[in-house]
Amino acid sequence: MEKLKERFSFKGVAERLTLGITRVLENMPGVVDVRFAEREPAEKRRLLSWDQKNNCILPEDLRDFYLTTDGFTLTWSIKLDNECVPLGCMMINSVARLCPLLQPASLYSLPNAPSLSDLDWEENDTDDGTGQAPAAPHFDARSRIFELDSCGGNGKVCLVYKNCTPGVVAQQSEIWFLDRSLCWHFLTATFTSYYRLMITHLGLPEWQYAFTPYGPSPQAKQWASLYQPLTFSSEASSADPAGDSHLNKLDPTKAFRAKAKVPAPNKKQSTQCSLGSAAKSSAAKPIAAKR
């Protein structure tokens, strides 16, 4: 009897964790095999050990999340030609897998081998020019970066502490997306906001690229239009009234700044045109006289 009560109580916790998205997915046409991995809460000593090891303090909402469940995994598939094809995946790494993105140099690495810190230079300290975008993280000691989700190899969602000082505990964190070209894109200021975004986008492939200037791939946009039509159409209309927010538009005046040369008139053509006009005028005079 007690085991049954615990099962129902955990089911209620799982329902609150997924915000009821499992029932929404199960009622969608073609969606099959909705799976939510049940995990026990993380121990407080493991969270304290993470803080001490990484010289950072977990944000309060992420700490509460880990005290509820040590990570999050929800996957779902679709049925195509009588086969189950995995499509959606929502994932938050456990405390043990919340590892630094920048690992210390190995003893076996070459002394002059390039690293991610080589991508940082002073020009990266500025924003896009709008004055509103937050400064991007750095790959050196100025930022402490931890991987929340590997995004199936399409990038990485990271917990980022910026403006760090060696030996000082970092406290302020943000959620950023690192795409495959190693460019940073700001997602949310808090983990709770990111968690809601993840649930809202149903874990569709490349959904994080909707927050980049170039957007997801055409195939990912097709999946979004099928299983997330309201959010997908609103994002497209808010970014561009025409709805083509992810298309590369060419402005010839900016791309081709050299002035086009005006072709010189051909003398033969001008003489032929003058002779033709004279012949027409002479042919029209007798007709007018007869009338």
Automatic annotation (TrEMBL):
Signal peptide span: none
Residue ranges annotated for the Knr4/Smi1-like domain, each copy included: 41-197
Biased composition (Low complexity): 277-291
Region annotated Disordered, chain positions: 258-291
PANTHER family recorded: TUBULIN POLYGLUTAMYLASE COMPLEX SUBUNIT 2 (PTHR31854:SF2)
Protein name: Knr4/Smi1-like domain-containing protein
Source organism of the structure: Mola mola
Upper classification of the organism: Eukaryota, Metazoa, Chordata, Craniata, Vertebrata
